[in-house]
Amino acid sequence: MKTIAHGPAFMVDEKGYYGRFGGAYIPEILHRNVKQLSDAFAHYVDDRDFNHELDILLSDYVGRPSPLYRAARLSERYGAEIYLKREDLNHTGAHKINNAIGSVLLARRMDKKHIIAETGAGQHGVATATVCALMGMDCTVFMGATDVMRQQPNVQRMQMLGARVVAVESGNKTLKDATNEAIRYWCCHPDSFYVIGSTVGPDPYPRMVAHFQSVISREMKAQLLEHTGREFPDAVVACVGGGSNAAGAFYHFIDNQDVRLIAAEAAGMGVDTDMTAATISVGTEGIIHGARTMVMQTPDGQIVEPYSISAGLDYPGIGPLHAHLADCGREEVVAITDREALDAAMLLTRTEGIIPALESAHALAALERIRFESGQTIVVNLSGRGDKDMHTYLSNLPSDFGR
């Protein structure tokens, strides 16, 4: 079967499969929408005017390139050269704005007027609401009621930006349920444009989101050359829920087998408990939200509710790209518990003066679990800042906090 690639090394065929994972399992009413989106993406992905406008916004509005920062005290602790890719310094505070701008620009060229999105931690919702405010578009964001409660600052930001935030009361009231509701709404309002926040969903979403996030690793290569004299690190570490920040951080390194790709997923209370979101570690092959991938499910195919202290990682699936990379051994997977993530967040805060998002803290915690040779260059994708997680951090501080 013909393989297509919008950038280096993407093993995706013309039907949207990465190996046996991916595809587009969608209801009949959405076939026209998805086909139009696929055709528009194929048309504009290499369009000079589209990419010129995107690049200007990424530079002048988002503030890219985001810095690549050598964390001196972490480097001393781990005996390696630890660099942080500072996506937390982007406008809106995370990597999500990269995809939101690209997707809404595409929607505008398709003459769409109403944008819908799902969100877990709220960063994708904020990013989408921000771009809609910038471009004068209506925006509706679906968010699980549980996440609405624990991510109030982001809910308030979305509302201030003019978005309508719909609190979803079904299921576990988290990211999976927000996605379910967004898809239901899309089926009833097919003229809407659905901006998916991660590398999940039916083709072309996984490859489209990965493409817009690939700016992360493209910048890494140039910045590493400046810092170290070579474009390629020894390893790249990123957290995975659906997998968008990891896809962007890994994108330009997938072909180079000398670069380790390390994905940190959310173990919650542990992979041997019922309170986990470690999809790659405990999931089985199935279909969720329009794609074949690894899914947390019962033997008869019922979705198992995930759990993580991090609102952005408690998703019972994984992007098909990551399912494929893990399946073929190209991507190493580390399951990080809540406690490990909290400890890693406190370590970064106290040693480098940077408060990370809980999602990013999972990637930082992976540094404690993997072996590096002395002096190796390791890049951790710091996918977001921790402002939104302050309530959770304050509720879980160590007993010696403040001493």
From TrEMBL:
This is Tryptophan synthase beta chain. PANTHER family: TRYPTOPHAN SYNTHASE, TRYPTOPHAN SYNTHASE-RELATED. It catalyses: (1S,2R)-1-C-(indol-3-yl)glycerol 3-phosphate + L-serine = D-glyceraldehyde 3-phosphate + L-tryptophan + H2O. Pathway: Amino-acid biosynthesis; L-tryptophan biosynthesis; L-tryptophan from chorismate: step 5/5. Tetramer of two alpha and two beta chains. InterPro entries: Trp_synth_beta, Trp_synth_beta/beta-like, TrpB-like_PALP, TrpB-like_PALP_sf. The modification N6-(pyridoxal phosphate)lysine is found at K96. The lineage of its organism: Bacteria, Pseudomonadati, Bacteroidota, Bacteroidia, Bacteroidales. Keywords: Amino-acid biosynthesis, Aromatic amino acid biosynthesis, Lyase, Pyridoxal phosphate, Tryptophan biosynthesis. It comes from the Bacteria. It comes from Muribaculum intestinale. Coiled coil: none annotated. Gene3D superfamilies: 3.40.50.1100. Its cofactor is pyridoxal 5'-phosphate. Pfam families: PALP.
